[in-house]
Amino acid sequence: MIEACEAEEASKTQEQPAWGAVFAMTLGVFGLVTAEFLPASLLTPMAADLHITEGIAGQAVTATAIVGMMTSLFISAATSRIDRRTVLLAFSLLLIASNLLVAFAVDLPLLLLGRVLLGIAIGGFWTMSAAVTMRLVPESQVPRALSMIFSGVSAATVLAAPVGSFLGDVIGWRSVFLMVAVLGAVTLIVQFVSLPRMAPTGLTGLRTLIDVVARPGVAVGMIAAMLIFSGHFAFFTYIRPFLETVTGVGINTVSAMLLGFGTANFVGTLLAGILLERSLRLTLTIMPLLMGILGLGLVALGSQPIPVALMVGLWGAAFGAVPVAWSTWLTRTVPDQAESAGGLLVAAIQLAIAVGAAAGGGIFEVSGATGVFAASSAILLLATTSILAGIRSRTAAIAKT
Length: 401
Hints:
By secondary structure, the chain is mainly alpha-helical. Helices cover about 85% and strands about 0% of the residues. It contains 16 helices and no strands.
């Protein structure tokens, strides 16, 4: 009887789109990603205030990433019997606690503790985001809902660094983190009001991760996603030295191009839902292909500022659709174990980011930023080939409702 009631509840949730709940999740991801990016723009005053070096203060970012990756693998199993609404509310509480700890930190251990809590919230949220979205809107509207949620990432990418840096100079870095804690409190209230009860579904355990990878097409998809994110972050990590040394532009122009990248990324994320409703497989294929071609174009025309600015903007728009596309692929390929698959995808992406940045650094030392962009293009074109060979049309079919 209980199971029947829960199934009926889930069915009603899908038949009646809960766009208020989708907005609440968008607000949550905006707060989480903003908090994640803030140290990049506030590292110098944070280090000076805590009497540590900037290199040591930078480990706050490392701690968040490592904990986020580990959390993504184990959070579904650890919360397998807890209502998903409760779990999401707990992530918002961790966001608040994290920023309060950082804001009032008097030494490095408290700073790292705050960032560890943030890592748990980020890893957990991304693991469950696709699975929860499937329960908030009808299947045909999942791509649009995911593009709305990921727009929170793009907005945070555009705003967090410049606004955080500006406000840090005006009101101090601790006050900036307090403001994000307030944003977390607002998010908690909105989520408490709008998120429906969502009983856990499926049998989730560590063994499930192995079973999911063994399914047809999943391993190939995960590898292709890793290649795309590795190629992108090799590019993005070294875009500033490329613009300064190859294109030969000053810091103001660099900032303008990066703002253009972020704005285009936001637009690309919003448009992704429309593209995915037409063809998932085409979107999965065309985005890394376009990015790979743009990378080769940057290598060939890197000394010409106007073409470079246009290509950097196009890259941002193309990458904006990538996270939405792969989350949608996940919901259609492993709909019955979306949380476990989501954890694997998040872990794969975090690993890809680390590998892309590290490998890019090695290539940069040997052949400069141009060599990094050429290697990035090769990786992205390899990802395109993997998608064409391994992602079948049956996983990309648009569901009819």
